[in-house]
Amino acid sequence: MAIGTLKITSLIIRTIAKPIANAIKTQAKNHVRFRKACIGFAQWMHRTDYTLRMRLLGEQSAAKIRPLNDARAIENGATFLSESIIFGVAGGLLVYEGVRSSLQESQRRERIEDDISTLQDEIEQLKNNLRKQQIQIDEYHLPDGVNPSILKFPKEETSELEGSKDQSLAETIVTAAAEAQVKAAAAKELQPAKSS
């Protein structure tokens, strides 16, 4: 969609630039100073063009370059100025689009970096929460009168967890499961005592 907008904008500016170029041609024919500037510029372009052509052809001619007549010089100078304006507008649009797209890309990169930073902060917070829970689990003591010897864990479950990358997390899960079973057993033992 941005490319279509750019093309439409470019077409509008070129359409506006053409009447401006034609107005420059008219001013060059009517305005005395502007006409002199166009004639001087056109004569310089003519001499430079002639000299370059002779050098490309390999001829070193010392012959005098015949100048353009005033009408042709005004026409050539005004045409060059008007085409320069159109070219300048088109070039300006290209530069603007390049700068705009690079700004959008840098903004997109900044958003991605912000997202990554936020995710890293969340990961650190989760790690801290796990450490706090591990500390609470390590400080937990079984209540008096509870016999944990009745709890037995299958070897398969513990071996799978021990092989994981974060062994402390596996130990936390096993400990939490053991505590839950101990609490459930203690709660069952206390319920019949309350009812009698």
From TrEMBL:
BP-aspect Gene Ontology terms: regulation of lipid metabolic process
Keywords: Coiled coil
UniProt keyword annotation of Transcription regulation present: no
GO CC annotation terms, alphabetical: mitochondrion
InterPro entries: OPA3-like
Coiled-coil ranges (or none): 109-136
Family per record: Belongs to the OPA3 family.
PANTHER family assigned: OPTIC ATROPHY 3 PROTEIN, OPTIC ATROPHY 3 PROTEIN OPA3
Protein name per Swiss-Prot or TrEMBL: OPA3-like protein
